[in-house]
Amino acid sequence: MTIPKVLLIYTGGTIGMIEDPIVKSLKPFNFNQITNEIPELNKLNCQIDALAFQNPIDSSNINFEIWTQIGDDIFRNYDEYDGFVVLHGTDTMSYTASALSLMFQNLSKPIILTGSQLPLGQVRTDGKENLITAIEIASMKRNKKAIIQEVAIYFENQLFRGNRTTKVSADHFDAFKSYNYPTLADVGVEINFNYSHLLSGGSKELYYKNKFDPGVLVVFFYPGIVVKSVIEIIKNSSSKVIVLMSYGSGNLPTDKNLIQFIKSQANSKKIFLNVSQCIAGKVEQEKYETGLNLKKAGVVGSLDMTLELVIVKSMFLLNKYPFDNLKFKENFVTNIAGELS
Prior knowledge:
The protein contains nine helices and 20 strands. It is of the alpha/beta class. The chain folds into two domains: about 5-210, L-asparaginase, N-terminal domain (Rossmann fold, 3-Layer(aba) Sandwich); about 215-330, 3-Layer(aba) Sandwich (Rossmann fold), CATH 3.40.50. The protein has an eight-stranded mixed sheet with strand order 4-1-5-7-10-11-14-15, sandwiched between helices. It has helices at about 35, 65-75, 95-105, 125-140, 225-235, 255-265, 290-295, 305-320, 325-330; strands at about 5-10, 15-20, 25-30, 45-50, 85, 105, 110-115, 140, 145, 150-155, 160, 165, 175, 185, 190-195, 205-210, 215-220, 240-245, 270-275, 300. A hairpin with a 2-residue loop joins strand 10 and strand 11 (about 160).
């Protein structure tokens, strides 16, 4: 029986840090010697190879060029391994998971992202369990096929669809939540997969696209905001996609100038998307008059997609359809990688 092969990719982040015994500062450790730091990995029934960024990236510095670098590393090694585990800083992990889910379509193998709130070198680290279980999940098969065939995040005993997640805590070990989609697996004494909620790549050929266009602007609305200033910001912005952070089910202040401005811009120049400030639930622009006015003006509701996914998906579709707003809008509300219900 062939032993599964898992490729571990360290991009940066807290999980890869250990304390220098002399100067007492944190530094990345050598992932080619990871079993020295976590000897329990030797007990897993899989071969683990490691690939580390030469210059580890703090997750706050992640951008679409880093997504491409991660994606290219996976794509280049795709046929050689049964699964992939990406170690990543937690702050922007949901963005990277969303990007990878769009970059790799028709996956037949797992890409699992994980990290930690405390460095591996610390006694109370959550990184050790996160890493061990992420690798175990990435190596698991059922009927000779990978159980997970999508991009996921494993953190604190739960496996989530990556493009459905949001980081919700900087202090707690259970730092991620998926409010609009169930967990893919719950981990205790055993790993219990929620099979009915898993994606399957089927027999389709893997599709890989690694290009993004960062022309996205996010506008956050709040009571008392000066709408005239909002209009000027949007008018002077070079960004083609404008994400409007609305209230509740997709409502904005009733302002004739704002609606008229959106209507004049949405026909040809810019694409307006409606994302709720609520992290659970969905945008329903038909529910109230304020939301309906936005729909009539040409604003596209984001349904139950996360803000992180909306931003990344916009970058992805902007590159794919740079001169076709209609194609962009059609594909924005189309389910590509299980990102919307």
